[in-house]
């Protein structure tokens, strides 16, 4: 159970349930979420309704994916004693607020959202010209405003979405009186982790290292990692600045970076040796997560308990917001 301090500022964030998470998710979100839960009242939700906006035909996967993602969250250090962890679809106030905000939101705000246009291009060939996909930035606004969040942790690429939330709150307050705060952006500068092929780490590219990958799989994936293409022979000096492998060393093995960089540039260290160093470090870093995962996989009742308690706590907060919203609108 979360122990709330009355003066704690509120933070809200969520993620679509796509199954087991990878190292990019870990360095890009989970490590930051873990830090934030020490100082803020945090609401972290499994965005299962959002998963339907582009994956409505695969809805049968959502339940299992949600369970796997929760296990990764807990394994990575999210603490249900400090943060509220819950399923979006189990707190119906998200849907009601989405409906009410939809009554006052201009269609043009949604159509001009940069990520809407980007995903239309990226997912070309998939039938996503539907109302849910167009409206998902407003559902995100409802997710945030239901808890009257003070701030939302975002990267710079997510700022347009947060601006829609702020614009929506501002319009609501103009029409009905001050009820919804305009959440600030809590800009999170996290290291960008490429996939093992140098592109963005993504399950769709099959270039990721999952948090749950066992040591033998980690070694195999590191073995396939892209290095300096101009270093054809062991004796050739390397260029760490263009090497995917070196980027991983910088993030997960920073104390060894000076020696690795010098050894690479002078050809004292070969790519095979460098990969062995990284694989051993990744296995070491991920060992506590693997141990926690094994324990959680044997406790399905506990996992459900975490979510049910989180949904109870989130529901109380969201219902209070909806009562204020209904009252302001005369409903």
Question: Can you give me a brief rundown of this structure?
Answer:
The protein is mainly α and 331 residues long.
Structure description:
The chain has 331 residues and is mostly helical. The protein has two domains: 10-193 and 300-329, HUPs (Rossmann fold, 3-Layer(aba) Sandwich), CATH 3.40.50; 203-292, Tyrosyl-Transfer RNA Synthetase. Helix content is 53%, strand content 8%. It has 13 helices and five strands. The protein has a three-stranded parallel β-sheet with strand order 1-2-3. The chain has a two-stranded parallel ribbon with strand order 4-5. Strand 4, helix 8 (159-176) and strand 5 (184-187) form a beta-alpha-beta unit. The mean pLDDT is 93.
Topology:
Blueprint: E1 10-15, H1 23-36, E2 41-46, H2 48-55, H3 62-75, E3 83-87, H4 93-102, H5 107-111, H6 114-122, H7 131-145, E4 151-154, H8 159-176, E5 184-187, H9 215-223, H10 244-252, H11 257-265, H12 271-297, H13 300-329
Parallel strand pairs: 1-2, 2-3, 4-5
Helix pairs in contact: 2-7, 3-12, 4-7, 4-13, 7-8, 9-12, 10-12
The SSE order reads: EHEHHEHHHHEHEHHHHH
The low-confidence parts are none
Oligomeric nature of the chains: single chain
Q: Roughly how many Å apart are the termini?
A: 33 Å
Name the CATH superfamily assignment of the largest domain. HUPs
Major sheet characteristics: 3 strands, parallel
Which structural category do the helix and sheet elements fall into? mainly alpha
Q: Radius of gyration, Cα only, in angstroms? A: 22 Å
> What is the CATH architecture assignment of the largest domain?
3-Layer(aba) Sandwich
Q: What do the pLDDT scores average to?
A: 93
Strand segment count = 5
CATH topology of the largest domain: the name is: Rossmann fold
| Neighbour order of strands in the largest sheet | 1-2-3
Q: How many structural domains does the protein architecture include?
A: 2
CATH class categorisation of the largest domain: Alpha Beta
């Amino acid at each position: 159970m979360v122990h709330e301090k009355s003066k704690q500022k509120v933070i809200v964030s969520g993620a679509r349930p796509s199954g087991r998470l990878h190292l990019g998710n870990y360095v890009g979100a989970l490590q930051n979420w873990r830090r934030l839960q020490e100082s803020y009242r945090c609401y972290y939700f499994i965005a299962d309704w959002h998963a339907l906006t582009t994956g409505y035909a695969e809805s049968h996967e959502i339940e299992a994916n949600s369970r796997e993602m929760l296990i990764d969250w807990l394994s990575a250090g999210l603490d249900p004693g400090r943060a509220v962890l819950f399923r979006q679809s189990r707190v119906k106030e998200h849907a009601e607020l989405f409906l009410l905000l939809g009554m006052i939101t201009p269609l043009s705000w949604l159509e001009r959202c940069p990520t809407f246009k980007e995903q239309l291009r990226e997912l070309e060939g998939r039938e996503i010209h539907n109302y849910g996909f167009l409206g998902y930035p407003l559902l995100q606004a409802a997710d945030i405003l239901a808890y009257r969040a003070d701030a939302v942790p975002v990267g710079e690429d997510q700022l347009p979405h947060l601006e829609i939330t702020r614009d929506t709150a501002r319009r609501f307050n103009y029409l009905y009186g001050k009820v919804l705060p305009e959440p600030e952006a809590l800009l999170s500068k996290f290291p960008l982790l490429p996939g093992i092929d140098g592109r963005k780490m993504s399950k769709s590219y099959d270039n990721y290292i999952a948090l749950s990958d066992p040591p033998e799989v980690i070694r195999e994936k590191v073995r396939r990692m892209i290095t300096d293409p101009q270093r054809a022979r062991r004796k050739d000096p390397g260029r760490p600045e263009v090497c995917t492998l070196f980027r991983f060393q910088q993030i997960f093995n920073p104390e060894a970076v000076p020696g690795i960089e010098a050894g690479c540039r002078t050809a004292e260290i070969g790519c095979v040796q460098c990969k062995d160093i990284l694989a051993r470090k990744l296995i070491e870093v991920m060992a506590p997560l693997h141990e926690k995962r094994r324990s959680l996989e044997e406790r399905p009742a506990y996992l459900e308990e975490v979510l049910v308690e989180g949904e109870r706590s989130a529901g109380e907060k969201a219902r209070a917001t909806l009562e204020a919203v209904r009252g302001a609108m005369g409903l």
